[in-house]
Task: inverse folding
């Protein structure tokens, strides 16, 4: 069974550009969550999608957005990139978001560098 | 809002010895879940162990066990018979029980090194 797949693994962008990251959850999983990991702030929750609807959102500016498709694949978009957006972006999928027995499985992340 | 604190940024342990990683949290909820995740250099977060707050019995998974003190809001991870492959960053995480909420709140993490 394939795990959570994030593409691309590495990305270098220039300030002011926008970027789209992709996450393919484990087959059958309907919940996808995104996290930003930086050395200074640690792991911070961005948002969660469940059945194509954003169910939870963290404290990030509106430049960070996401969506989920009918096949549960999710994308997150960051517009007008800033140097501080450089981070590892992790995606996690689970079978049923909010059900306590469901474990969150993480992808290997996308390392975004903004120059 | 819930917070998770891991006050030790780094720890080191001799191979085959036992090490305990500390974690404290703050919440006003009575039901919740606590987790320890491992992040090796490959960056993939791997679930090590899970504890449901309503369970008084401490969770164990092979060489990994927790000491869950609900009143003290403490959740430490004990690794027995440490192996070189245990070297990684370890994160303590909290998740609410109620509502449709998959959000995990993480601590800052602790880097564990294992000396051969």
Result:
């Amino acid at each position: 069974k394939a795990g959570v797949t994030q593409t691309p693994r590495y990305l270098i962008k220039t300030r002011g550009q926008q970027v789209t990251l992709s996450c393919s959850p484990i087959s059958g999983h309907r919940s996808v969550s995104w996290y930003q990991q930086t050395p200074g702030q640690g792991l911070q929750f961005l948002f969660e999608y469940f059945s194509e609807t954003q169910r939870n959102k963290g404290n990030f500016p509106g430049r960070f957005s996401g969506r989920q498709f009918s096949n549960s694949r999710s994308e997150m978009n960051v517009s007008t990139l800033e140097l501080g957006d450089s981070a590892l972006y992790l995606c996690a999928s689970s079978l049923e978001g909010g059900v306590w027995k469901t474990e969150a499985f993480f992808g290997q992340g996308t390392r975004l560098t903004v120059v | 809002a819930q917070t998770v604190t891991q006050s030790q940024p780094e720890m080191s342990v001799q191979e085959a010895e036992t090490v305990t990683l500390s974690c404290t949290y703050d919440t006003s909820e009575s039901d919740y879940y606590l987790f320890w995740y491992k992040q090796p250099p490959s960056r993939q977060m791997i679930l090590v162990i899970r504890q449901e707050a309503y369970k008084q019995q401490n969770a164990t998974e092979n060489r990994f066990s927790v000491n869950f003190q609900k009143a003290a809001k403490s959740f430490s991870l004990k690794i027995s018979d440490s192996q070189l492959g245990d070297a990684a960053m370890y994160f303590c995480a909290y998740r609410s029980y109620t509502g449709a909420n998959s959000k995990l709140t993480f601590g800052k993490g602790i880097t564990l090194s294992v000396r051969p």
Notes: Chain B has a mean pLDDT of 93. Chain B is about 0% helix and 55% strand.
